Automatic annotation (TrEMBL):
Coiled coil: none annotated. Fe cation binds at H59, H61, H103, E105. InterPro entries: Pirin (IPR012093), Pirin_N_dom (IPR003829), Quercetinase_C (IPR041602), RmlC-like_jellyroll (IPR014710), RmlC_Cupin_sf (IPR011051). This is Pirin family protein. GO terms for molecular function: metal ion binding. It comes from the Bacteria. Residues 11-121 form the Pirin N-terminal domain. SUPFAM superfamilies: RmlC-like cupins. Pfam families: Pirin, Pirin_C_2. Binds 1 Fe cation per subunit.
Length: 238
């Protein structure tokens, strides 16, 4: 049976640390809501804005797939694997933290804030060698661009999970349909900009919608330059 879970933007957890303004779709840090622990393998979905010249000091992670999608500005990433890179809006970065990695993420600008989406997905393989990857997005419109999949041979980059992530920027009224890649998965939809009708549910900017039991989803942009992120993940975690 199909089921949907609506997360309106103004119902998210919120933390303002001065240097960091963060909205949490799921329980995170000091925000705890037993009804919002995760969506299947999707454990964390944070909408972060980092002040100029500030950031997250070096800290550890293990056995998690961590995806960062800059929306404005750029992040400076450093880790104990020897990576020191800048990720700008129009690019994404992925870490498979596996057996353990230390990293820091700083706003690369000393003048302007940077905003990004921080996504954590449980892996389907534990204690793998940690890795970092970064990919540039296409600039096209009116289609869904695959940015992450389980396959090293597929479009975008990959993670250790049967998960697929797509981004799309659309003109008003240009409808598209998404088909689940794997039976039993669920789909989490987040509107980055503008508004969409998802099947028969209207989503505004920064709203999220989880769909279970629906193999086909119709997305209709209701505004010009509307942008959406789709996250397909397993609902049952082994």
């Amino acid at each position: 049976m199909a089921r949907s879970i609506l997360h309106k933007a103004n119902t998210r957890g919120h933390a303002d640390h001065g240097w960091l303004d963060s909205s949490h779709t799921f329980s995170f840090a000091n925000y705890y809501n037993p009804e919002r622990m995760q969506f299947g393998a999707l454990r964390v979905f944070n909408d972060d804005t980092v002040a100029a010249g500030r950031g997250f000091d070096s800290h550890p992670h293990d056995n998690m797939e961590i995806i960062s999608i800059p929306l404005s500005g750029a992040l400076e990433h450093k880790d104990n694997l020897g990576n020191r890179v800048i990720t700008k809006a129009g690019e994404i970065q992925v870490m498979s933290t596996g057996t353990g990695v230390f990293h820091s993420e700083y706003n690369a600008s000393k003048e302007e804030p940077a905003s990004f989406l921080q996504i954590w997905i449980y892996p389907n393989k534990l204690n793998v060698p940690p890795r970092y990857d970064q990919v540039k997005l296409s600039t096209g419109k009116n289609h869904l661009q695959q940015i992450i999949s389980p396959s090293t041979e597929d479009a975008g980059t990959w993670i250790y999970q049967d998960a697929w992530l797509h981004l799309g920027r659309f003109d008003k009224g240009v409808q598209t349909t998404y088909q689940l890649k794997k039976e039993g998965n669920g789909l989490y939809i987040f509107v980055i900009r503008g508004s969409f009708r998802i099947n028969d549910v209207q989503l505004e900017e920064r709203d999220g919608l989880g769909l279970e039991g629906s193999t086909e989803t119709v997305l209709t942009p209701l505004t010009d330059d509307a942008e959406v992120l789709l996250i397909e993940v397993p609902l049952l975690i082994r």
